[in-house]
Design brief:
Blueprint: E1 19-20, E2 27-28, E3 35-37, E4 46-47, E5 53-59, E6 64-69, H1 77-85, E7 91-100, E8 103-106, E9 110-115, E10 122-128, E11 138-144, E12 150-155, E13 163-168, E14 176-182, E15 187-192, E16 195-200, E17 211-215, E18 221-233, E19 241-254, E20 259-261, E21 271-278, E22 284-291, E23 305-312, E24 317-318, E25 323-326, E26 334-340, E27 346-352, E28 365-370, E29 376-378, E30 388-393, E31 399-404, E32 413-418, E33 429-430, H2 438-441, E34 445-452, H3 460-468, E35 473-474, E36 476-477
Parallel strand pairs: 1-8, 3-9, 16-35, 20-36
Antiparallel strand pairs: 2-4, 5-6, 5-7, 7-8, 7-9, 10-11, 10-34, 11-12, 13-14, 14-15, 15-16, 17-18, 18-19, 19-20, 21-22, 22-23, 23-24, 23-25, 26-27, 27-28, 28-29, 30-31, 31-32, 32-33
Amino acid sequence: MILYLLLFTSCGEQVINPEKLNVIPPVFPDYTGVTVPASIAPLNFVLSIPYDKIDVTISGKKGSLHIQSDKVAAFPPSDWSSIVQDNIGDSLQITVSVKSEGKWRQYLPFAIYISPDSIDYGLVYRLIAPGYEVWSKMGIYETCLSTAKQSTILDNKLMAPNCMNCHTFPQNNPHKMSLHIRGANGATALVQNGSIEMLATKTDKMIGNAQYTYWHPSEKYIAFSTNKTQQGFHARDEKRVEVIDLESDVFVYDIVNNEMVSCPQLSSKESFETFPSFSADGKTLFFCTADARPIPEEYNQIRYNLCSVSFDPVSRTFGNKVDTLVAAEAMGKSVSFPRPSYDGKYLMFTMSDYGNFSIWHKEADLWLVDLNTGISRSLTEVNSNDVESYHNWSSNSRWFVFSSRRIDGLYTRPFIANIDSNGKIGKPFLLPQKDPEEYIRSFYSYNLPEFVTGPVEVNPRDLAAAAMKPERKQVKPAN
């Protein structure tokens, strides 16, 4: 049997005859029973109790790994990678002992399952402090999933203090990206294979600039919604803030011809249409729609259904019939963020009590539609007692990432879960950090997590410089 045994004999000590505890250890992040890919960075953790030393042994059918430290259970990357790679398709047993008040205590072991399903290179997200009307430091960042190293895609320290959001990629392709920049230098950045264009997306047929983007699989189109919104605050409510549509429509941007196209089914004055996304084959456009109601009087009666309309990418035309996939209004619920898997099997969405700004709705949960049967269900395997919100898929559709406030109810953090070829979903895990206490120290939320298959190919300074220039490419309305 291969052994990966790391013993700190000079500064460590043997755990002899520890007191046996009949509970699993209170590890943070909670990595007990999670399913992870073999390429994942070390799942370093701490315990949520005081202790003087921590001793951890990882055992698999092939190999073992041992560490001991004063605080963080941090695993050497090369040794971690070796034991994880050698146990793909199997589980690792983690035994934790702690020393406090001069005495060792040992917890029940817990398992980590190593999935045979591969995962993408990294995760892209926005880091932002919770705020409402103003913002300070924020940026778009990327973490490599195999090293936990974070790099910058765009930071507003590099330009005027602009807000930035809605970064999206065509099926996780890091060579192409769209990104909205708000403020004095507002525009939609379109990055394609190293070139950067700053788009002025509002046409005379639109109520505002483009928002909430999703790429067509051909990479020739980007679906947008355009929204006039109103922000409201709860004086005494755990939801804290609402962002409500006053008007909203859906458009599709033709990148080649620099034109916005739409149809009456996607731009009705009697309805709010928002959050578009394309099917895996590009022949269907999913979106959320609700009957328009007076605002703010009936804000909590606005409920969005999940609908679809056909789309012909050759002629840029839409079907005449709108189909309802999930009649959430009849359930007293509302749908947001529809995201289809890239293999065409599923569509994931967020379900909340009303509206479409679900990130402060504690009742917001993830749901899944089987696109072959049309059956939808709550993802009880991953939902918590707090907010589950924005989500997306890995390129092979075997993993999904989602935002959750489950740790403290205040900040969103990115969790990743496996869905195997049979649709079985594993326990999600928090994005690994070299120092897991960074999640405790940080005052930033992780927004809009997106997988990418490689490093995003754009220079932050080039992107900031393009945003600061006055030139904008004006998008035209289709004839």
